[in-house]
Write a structure and sequence with these properties.
With 179 residues, this protein is of the alpha+beta class. It has 2 helices and 8 strands, in the order ααββββββββ. Helices cover 18% and strands 63% of the residues.
Length: 179
């Protein structure tokens, strides 16, 4: 039942985003449309002793006005960790719908519905072998301080499940850059 509800929400939000995008295109000329689109996202990499984590998450947001924006994002991550007791490899990829609200210039509130394909292999001395090839849905609600093109804040995954092996915590700080 939970997956049906999330599937319905994902379809409804995708339909709403497409309708809003087409309405914006019809109501404005193309040059004016692209002047309201902001591009950005995140790039991440961390390396350690037998550990690699590389991610790329581009995004685009259409600003309807100085208060409201709606956009889409893509995400791809590769994680590999090998140790004496545990080996872990994961490939995650997918997309998201992003909504932002700026009640005042310095504050940005956000909601992001993310759908990721998860392919992971886990081998632990105590727990044994585990493989997962599934979809994971996250709904992040966030708030941040905005200074020009940079937003510094935190977001919380209201659908967090500690058993899904995708995120280790529901709370995540972020730095966003849109230009």
């Amino acid at each position: 039942m939970k997956s049906f509800g999330l599937h319905f929400i994902t379809k409804a939000l995708t339909t709403a985003l497409l309708c809003l995008s087409f309405t914006a295109l019809q109501a404005q000329d193309e040059a004016n449309f692209w002047s309201k689109v902001r591009f950005g996202g995140a790039v991440g990499a961390s390396f350690g002793n037998n550990y690699t984590n590389v991610s790329l998450a581009p995004a685009a947001i259409y600003e309807f006005n100085r208060y409201v924006g709606l956009g889409v994002g893509l995400q791809g991550s590769y994680i590999n960790s090998t140790g004496i007791y545990t080996d872990y490899t994961a490939l995650l990829y997918g997309g998201s719908l992003i909504g932002v609200l700026n009640p005042i210039e310095q504050i940005q509130l956000s909601a992001e519905l993310e759908q990721l394909r998860v392919n992971l292999e886990f081998d632990d001395v105590d727990l044994g072998e585990y493989q997962d090839n599934s979809w994971n849905t996250a709904l992040f609600l966030g708030a941040g301080y905005r200074a020009g093109d940079v937003i510094l804040g935190a977001r919380y995954n209201v659908l967090f499940d500690e058993n899904d092996f995708v995120y280790s915590t529901a709370f995540m700080p972020f730095i966003r850059l849109y230009f």
